[in-house]
């Protein structure tokens, strides 16, 4: 029942937003609007793809082997989480205006995700490393000695988060320039 109430509330909020916000109502009701022309979404996805590809190729350069886990894994340089949310926030700012509520929401989301990346997840990864060392030191007959190791590379260092943010900013800005140039042709 809560799921139905939640979806009804969501529909009501979207209807209210569409009737009170001209930018939302015009962009959502446009017949030419498509997910493939959603500049903020495309900017976020491109930033994510660039960040993950960078990790993939730098791991090959360092280790001289292809590690497909780098394409979907978390951690490493640059932060794909930061790149994605910053690209989304900046693209929303370019599209809807930096003074609008949508940009504010996207900016808060970006700040929370980046804080989580170098705060909570970084420390969770460090705790996993310590716990793995403890488990490795257990005698073979201990019930936990055979447990699977915890993932240690979960979060990011501040430079990795900053690099991801800069990548997201650059991706959204370049995307904005391309969209603007295409609309003038």
SSE blueprint and pairings:
Elements: H1 2-20, H2 22-29, H3 39-63, H4 80-96, H5 101-118, H6 120-136, H7 158-184
Helix pairs in contact: 1-2, 3-4, 3-7, 4-5, 4-7, 5-6
Explain what the structure shows.
- The protein has 185 residues and is mainly alpha-helical.
- The chain has seven helices and no strands.
- The chain has helices at residues 2-20, 22-29, 39-63, 80-96, 101-118, 120-136, 158-184.
- α3 (39-63) crosses α7 (158-184) and α5 runs parallel beside α6.
- The model is unreliable at 1-31 (pLDDT under 50).
Key terms for this structure?
0% strand; 71% helix; mainly alpha; disordered N terminus; 185 residues
In short:
The protein has 7 helices and no strands.
User: DSSP helix count?
Assistant: 7
| Mean pLDDT level | 75
Span of the ends, CA to CA? 51 Å
Please bin the fraction of helical residues.
over 70%
Beta-strand percent range: under 5%
Number of strands: 0
> Strand pairing plus helix content: what structural class?
mainly alpha
The radius of gyration is 21 Å
Largest sheet report? none
Low-pLDDT sequence parts: 1-31
H/E element sequence: HHHHHHH
Backbone shape: elongated
């Amino acid at each position: 029942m809560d799921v139905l109430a939640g979806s009804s509330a969501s529909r009501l909020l979207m209807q209210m937003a569409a009737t009170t916000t001209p930018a939302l109502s015009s962009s959502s009701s446009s017949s030419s609007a498509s997910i493939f022309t959603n500049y903020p979404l495309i900017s976020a996805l491109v930033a994510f793809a660039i960040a993950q590809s960078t990790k993939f190729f730098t791991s090959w350069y360092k280790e001289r082997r292809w590690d497909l886990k780098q394409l979907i894994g978390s951690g490493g340089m640059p932060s794909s989480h930061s790149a994605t949310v910053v690209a989304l926030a900046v693209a929303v700012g370019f599209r809807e205006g930096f003074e609008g509520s949508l940009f504010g929401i996207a900016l808060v989301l970006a700040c929370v995700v980046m804080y989580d990346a170098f705060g909570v997840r970084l420390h969770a990864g460090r705790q996993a490393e310590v716990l793995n060392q403890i488990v490795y030191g257990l005698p073979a007959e201990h019930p936990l000695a055979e447990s699977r190791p915890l993932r240690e590379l979960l979060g990011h260092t501040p430079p990795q988060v900053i690099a991801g943010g800069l990548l997201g900013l650059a991706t959204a800005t370049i995307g904005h320039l391309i969209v603007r140039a295409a609309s003038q042709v």
